[in-house]
Amino acid sequence: DLAARVARREWRAADVARHFIARVQALNPGLNAIVQFAPDRVLAEAQAVDRRLAAGESLPLAGVPFTVKDNLWVEGYRIAQGSLLFKDFVAPRDAWAVARLRALGGVMLGITNCSEFACKGVTSNLLYGATRHPLDPALTPGGSSGGAVSALASGLGLLALATDAGGSVRRPAAHCGLVGLKPSPGLVPHPWGFAEPNYGLSVIGVLARGVADCAWAFDLLAAFDAGDAAGVPIPSGLTQPVPEPPPPGLRIAWSPRLGCDFAIDDDVLAMLQARVDALRAAGWQIADADPPWPAEVREYPLIALQHAGLHALYGAQWRADPAQLDPVLGAQIETGARITPADVARSLRLRERIAQSLAGFFGAYDLLLCPTAPVTAWPLDQIGPPVIGGRPAGPRGHAAFTPLFNYCGVPACSVPAGTVRGLPVGLQVVAPRYEDARVLGFAAVVEGCPH
C-alpha cells in the first residue's frame, strides 16, 4: 500500500523517509537493532526516488524502507559482520539483493546488528553489544538476525534482508512475531560479498510483518545470476503478489518433534498443536508423520562444517589476538582446528543422506509443518535456555528445528502462530526444493486461519 501511494504521488518518498528516520531516532537507542544509520543518506536516497518517479520510472518498491543485516554489503557503509576484525571495512558495492531493492525504488534505512560472522544464536558481539527484544528489553530476539527482527517488529522499516545458514532468519522471526522466509538455494542471487563460514548452506532471506509482503519482496528478488555458484534459472513460482492458496487436496504432515525427539516446551507445543488442529478443522488434511532421518541426525548434526569454516577463515587472527573475537566464536574456531579432512568428508556425505531422506518423505507429502523454535525468547545474558521441555539443553537446543532444512536445500518459512506467556511463537512450513511458492501459499493459509 505504501509503495502504491508513493508511486501514485499521493505521498512523497522523502516524507516517508522522514517518518522512519524519526522512528529510528526515537526507538533504536533502547533496542540497539540498527548499528549503522545515516539519516542524511536515507533522505537523499528517498529524494532520488521522488525524482525517478517524476521522470516517469515505474518503481514497484517506491519509497519502501528496508534494513540490511551487517553481513551483507551496502556500498559506502561500514559492514563488519559484527566483528572487530572488520570494524573499518567499507563495502565497495551493494550486495546483489540490496542493489535489486534499491533499483526497484526501495530505500535503505540502516544496517542491523548480528552475532559475529552470523554464527551464534543470539545477537551480541564485541563491536556493537547486544540487541534487545522489542517486547521486553530483558530478553534476546534470538540470532543471528536479531537486529533485523527487533527493528522490523518495532516499525523501523517495512522489510528486512538477512541471511540464514541454519535458521538465522526463521527463529528470530518466530521470537518476534514476524514472517521469515529461507528460500531455496540460488533463487535470490548472492554472487559477491564476504567469505561464508557455512559455505553452501547460507541463503539470503526475507523478513516482513506479513506473508503477502514477504512473498512480494521474494518475487521481486528471485532471479538468476550466473556469478552465483548456486544460481538456478528458475522463477519464483508466484503468479500474483498475494500468494495463491494451495489446492485443498494437499498432502500435509505435522511433525511436532521432527522425528528426532527434539525437546520443546509444553506450552509452546500446545499452542502450535492448537494451530494445526485449527487448520484441520478448516478442512486441511494433516497427518501426524515424521521424516525418516539417518540415525546420526541430532541437533545441528553438521555443525562441524561451520567450525571448520570459521577456523579456515579466522584461525590465524584468533591465534594472534584472541581479544579481537567473541569467546563463543573462539571456542568454535578451536573446535574447528581439531576437525580433520575425513571429518569434513563424513559431514558432506551425511548431508547428502539427510537430503535424500527428506526428498523421499516428500514423495508421500507435499508439505511439512513443524515448530520453528521450541521455546519463546529467553534472557538477554544467556546463550540459550538451560532447560527446554523439562530437559537440560545445550547451547543449540533452541535451534534444533531449523538447520536440517538448510542441509536439504529446501524452502522453509516461519509464520506467527500465537503467543505463549505473552511472547510470540512460530510454525514452520517446509516444502520440496524450489516449491517456494507452495510454502508461501500455505504460510498465508496459516496466517489467516482463526484459532
TrEMBL record:
Presence of the UniProt keyword Transferase in the record: yes
InterPro entries: Amidase, Amidase_dom, AS_sf
Keyword Transferase: yes
GO molecular function: transferase activity
Amidase domain sequence ranges: 16-440
The entry's keywords: Transferase
Protein's UniProt name: Amidotransferase
Species for this entry: Pseudacidovorax intermedius
Lineage: Bacteria, Pseudomonadati, Pseudomonadota, Betaproteobacteria, Burkholderiales
